[in-house]
Amino acid sequence: MDRSSQLYLFGTSLLLLQWLIDYSSANSYINLDRSSLTAFKSRISFDPHNILTKNWSSRRNVCSWIGVTCDSRYHRVTRLDISSMGIVGTIPPEIGNLSFLVSLDFSENSFHGPIPPSIFNMSFLEDLNLRNNSLSSSLPFDMCKHNLHRLKRLRISFNKLYGEIPSSLEHCSQLEYVSLRSNNFSGHVPTQIGKLTMLQELYLGANYLSGTIPKEIANLTNLQWLGLHNNNLSGNIPKEIGNLRMLQWLDLNTNKLSDNIPNEIFALTNLQTLVVSVNNFRGHVPIEIGNLTMLRLLDLSTNKLSGNIPLEIGALTNLRYLDMSFNTFSQHVPREIGNLKELQSLYLSNNKLYGNIPNAIGALTNLQNLDVSVNNFSGHVPKEIGNLKMLQWLNVRTNKLSGNIPNDIGGLTNLQTLSMDFNSFSGQVPRQIWNLTMLLTLYLGNNMLSGNIPTEIGVATNLQYLDMSFNNFSDHVPREIGNLTSLQLLFLNNNKLSGNIPTNIGTLTNIQYLDMSFNNFRDHVPREIGNLTSLQTLYLNNNKLSGNIPKEIGALTNLQTLSMSFNNFNGHVPKEIGNLTMLQWLNLRTNKLSGNIPKEIGALTNLQYLAINLNNISGQMPREIWNLTMLQMLYLGSNNLSGNIPKEIGALTNLQTLSMQFNSFSGHVPREIQNLPKLQELYLDANNLSGKILTISMLLV
């Protein structure tokens, strides 16, 4: 064999040997990857769709398993994605043996237990996503020091991770995206975070971080999104934040930040979202706010900001959402607010704003939510508000507004909530309002409105909450009110309404709170009231109602409060009242009720307040009444009750007030009364009692 042939054979042998070594090595690594994934599979305790159970089979090639991606040369696992599979389990340390892994995504599952430290030893990992699980551990203090140097995206939000954010994170210098939000991290924001100069998005919100915002954050000049909200951060916003010229989204809400909002923030002209709500910022909003012309969302609410709303806010023509509520802004709302044509939500409530609501607000034709409540606005509601055809929520409550409710409001056909209570509106409610068939909530209480409740009320069939209390409405309640079958709350109290309670009220089977007190209603309570089985609170007191208390009231088994006092009810207290076992407050005082106290009242073991005084109740107190051990106030005075006061009264250990005067009780006052530990007021006068009350401090006898 000549020399060239020998060399060829030798070279071929070397190549074959290298191939055999590579094959053997690759096969060894493939088996290592398989064993790592098998170890992972063994830690799965619940696989709701049986994806891994059936697909990850030893008979199949690992690279064909669902969620597994391999490279084409060595057939090593480079990507593992089992996100959003509803899997429950723990992550084993063997997962760190997937040494070729570039991307790991276990997000949107129910993994619990610690993150194994081996994950942080992966040299090729670029994307780690463990968000939305229940993982609980701290991050290693030397994280990124020796490995993870290629990591670009770190997403471990919405878990139960704790401890400090390791300063060694600075060594993951390729990071572009970091989200640690919604965990239990504590301690300070490490200053070393300022070395991650490639960072574009940083989310540390909803943790327990404290201390100040480090000024080193200003070195992150590529940063576009920064979230530090819902922590315990304090001190100032560092003025160096003005270096973040690429910033589009800044959320600092719900911290303990204070002092002025630095002017440097208003140089960040790429900002689209600025949220600094629920802090302790004070001072004025500077005119430089007009520089942020890209802003779509601005939330300054719940601070201590003061002064006027600057005219320059009218330059923010891209704004969709503006919230300046819960501050101490004063003076007028500038008419320039009418320039914000894209605005969908405007919240100015709970300030000290005064003057008229500007007519210019009628130019905000995209507005869906408008809240100017709890201010000092006066004058009329501008008719231009009728231009806001997209409006779903309108709140002008608790101001000094007057005049009529404008008819134009009746054209806001998308309106779902209308709150105009606690003002000085007068005149009649425009009939057009009842044509707002989308209306769910209507609050008109505490005004000076008058006239009758029109039959058109029956058109507003989607109403769930209706408050017309504390006005001067008169005449009958129309039977059409029975059409409002979605109603959950109805306040008609403190008006001049008269006539019968309409029988149609029995169709309001979803109602939970009904107050018709302090009116001039007459005659019987309709037995249809027993249909209101969702009712929890019923006030019929201070009317001119008469007849028997209907036994159908016993069907209201969810009732917690029942007040029928100051009427002309007669007859017996119905025994069916004993069915109301949820009842905490029962007031039947000042009527013409007679007969005995029904023994069934002893079933009301949740009762805290019982008043049946100022009636014509007679006979002895039923022994069952001493079962009411939750009672705090018991008023039985000014009746015709007789017999002894039994020693069982000592069972009422929560009693604070006991009124039994002006009856015909006889015998000795039981010693047990003086042992009632919480008793503060005791009225036993004008009876036929004998004996002594020894010493009861703080009692009025």
UniProtKB/TrEMBL annotation:
<keyword id="KW-0472">Membrane</keyword>
<dbReference type="Pfam" id="PF23598">
    <property type="entry name" value="LRR_14"/>
</dbReference>
<keyword id="KW-1003">Cell membrane</keyword>
<dbReference type="InterPro" id="IPR032675">
    <property type="entry name" value="LRR_dom_sf"/>
</dbReference>
<feature type="domain" description="Disease resistance R13L4/SHOC-2-like LRR">
    <location>
        <begin position="574"/>
        <end position="686"/>
    </location>
</feature>
<keyword id="KW-0732">Signal</keyword>
<keyword id="KW-0067">ATP-binding</keyword>
<dbReference type="GO" id="GO:0005524">
    <property type="term" value="F:ATP binding"/>
</dbReference>
<keyword id="KW-0677">Repeat</keyword>
<comment type="similarity">
    <text>Belongs to the RLP family.</text>
</comment>
<dbReference type="GO" id="GO:0004674">
    <property type="term" value="F:protein serine/threonine kinase activity"/>
</dbReference>
<protein>
    <recommendedName>
        <fullName>non-specific serine/threonine protein kinase</fullName>
        <ecNumber>2.7.11.1</ecNumber>
    </recommendedName>
</protein>
<dbReference type="GO" id="GO:0006952">
    <property type="term" value="P:defense response"/>
</dbReference>
<keyword id="KW-0808">Transferase</keyword>
<keyword id="KW-0675">Receptor</keyword>
<keyword id="KW-0812">Transmembrane</keyword>
<keyword id="KW-1133">Transmembrane helix</keyword>
<feature type="domain" description="Leucine-rich repeat-containing N-terminal plant-type">
    <location>
        <begin position="31"/>
        <end position="71"/>
    </location>
</feature>
<dbReference type="InterPro" id="IPR001611">
    <property type="entry name" value="Leu-rich_rpt"/>
</dbReference>
<keyword id="KW-0597">Phosphoprotein</keyword>
<dbReference type="GO" id="GO:0005886">
    <property type="term" value="C:plasma membrane"/>
</dbReference>
<dbReference type="InterPro" id="IPR003591">
    <property type="entry name" value="Leu-rich_rpt_typical-subtyp"/>
</dbReference>
<keyword id="KW-0325">Glycoprotein</keyword>
<keyword id="KW-0433">Leucine-rich repeat</keyword>
<dbReference type="Pfam" id="PF13855">
    <property type="entry name" value="LRR_8"/>
</dbReference>
<keyword id="KW-0547">Nucleotide-binding</keyword>
<dbReference type="InterPro" id="IPR055414">
    <property type="entry name" value="LRR_R13L4/SHOC2-like"/>
</dbReference>
<dbReference type="InterPro" id="IPR053211">
    <property type="entry name" value="DNA_repair-toleration"/>
</dbReference>
<dbReference type="InterPro" id="IPR013210">
    <property type="entry name" value="LRR_N_plant-typ"/>
</dbReference>
<feature type="domain" description="Disease resistance R13L4/SHOC-2-like LRR">
    <location>
        <begin position="294"/>
        <end position="423"/>
    </location>
</feature>
<feature type="domain" description="Disease resistance R13L4/SHOC-2-like LRR">
    <location>
        <begin position="456"/>
        <end position="568"/>
    </location>
</feature>
<feature type="signal peptide">
    <location>
        <begin position="1"/>
        <end position="26"/>
    </location>
</feature>
<dbReference type="GO" id="GO:0051707">
    <property type="term" value="P:response to other organism"/>
</dbReference>
<dbReference type="Pfam" id="PF08263">
    <property type="entry name" value="LRRNT_2"/>
</dbReference>
<dbReference type="Pfam" id="PF00560">
    <property type="entry name" value="LRR_1"/>
</dbReference>
<dbReference type="GO" id="GO:0051606">
    <property type="term" value="P:detection of stimulus"/>
</dbReference>
